[in-house]
Amino acid sequence: MNARRGWIEVVCGSMFSGKTEELIRRLNRAKIARQRVEIFKPALDTRYHELDVVSHNANSIRSTPIPIAQEMLLLAGSCDVVGVDEAQFFDESLVDVCVQLANRGSRVIVAGLDMDFLGKPFGPMPALMAVAEYVTKVHAVCVCCGEIASYSFRITASESKILLGETDSYEARCRPCFLDGMREKNTEPTSAAAKH
């Protein structure tokens, strides 16, 4: 029987809620404890840095960008702690990879958006939350009213499921302000067409 006990932790929430900040905090504590730590992020996420995982507060930690989740199984080796940032950008195989790592005895800490810009469950995140021992949902502040925000409202016209961006593309919003924004977006094309 494996002497180490593995488990999965998920940190989720909207954009600007502090998910990556919390991931970095947990990983740095593991490093202080002299645990072997490996951190991964999707290769497509190059917003702040090619290699580092960087929070909105500019805190960073070295990571390994990978194109597919399965690479973690080879690269994590016998790590005590495995961190994954921007998990929503990986495909559904991430769930099985995280389970395998935890079964090997690794503590797996995953951070990602739980909902996309339409307010729908995002990628592998719902399944990861289901198999995780610990789930932490963090919140942002609604830019419209100041209440707690759980939604990432896209302020650009793009309908692409994946659109890397920051405050130029997204706002954190509470449920009522998110719904108001979605209603406004859905009526804009109709009212513009009516003018012609």
UniProtKB/TrEMBL annotation:
Keyword Methyltransferase: no
Keywords, in A-Z order: ATP-binding, Cytoplasm, DNA synthesis, Kinase, Metal-binding, Nucleotide-binding, Transferase, Zinc
SUPFAM superfamilies referenced in this protein's UniProt entry, alphabetically: Glucocorticoid receptor-like (DNA-binding domain) (SSF57716), P-loop containing nucleoside triphosphate hydrolases (SSF52540)
Keyword Phosphoprotein: no
Family annotation (InterPro entries): P-loop_NTPase, Thymidine_kinase, Thymidine_kinase_CS
Binding site for Zn(2+): C142, C145, C174, C177
Binding-site residues for ATP, renumbered to this chain: G13, S14, M15, F16, S17, G18, K19, T20, D85, E86, A87, Q88
Localization, UniProt: Cytoplasm
Residue numbers annotated as active site: E86 (proton acceptor)
Cellular component terms (Gene Ontology): cytosol
One Pfam entry name: TK
Catalytic reaction list: thymidine + ATP = dTMP + ADP + H(+)
EC number assigned by the record: 2.7.1.21
Gene Ontology terms, MF aspect: ATP binding; thymidine kinase activity; zinc ion binding
Binding-site list for substrate: I162, L163, L164, G165, Y170
UniProt record, GO biological process: DNA biosynthetic process; thymidine metabolic process
Quaternary structure, from the entry: Homotetramer.
Family: Belongs to the thymidine kinase family.
Protein name: Thymidine kinase
Name of the gene this protein is made from: tdk
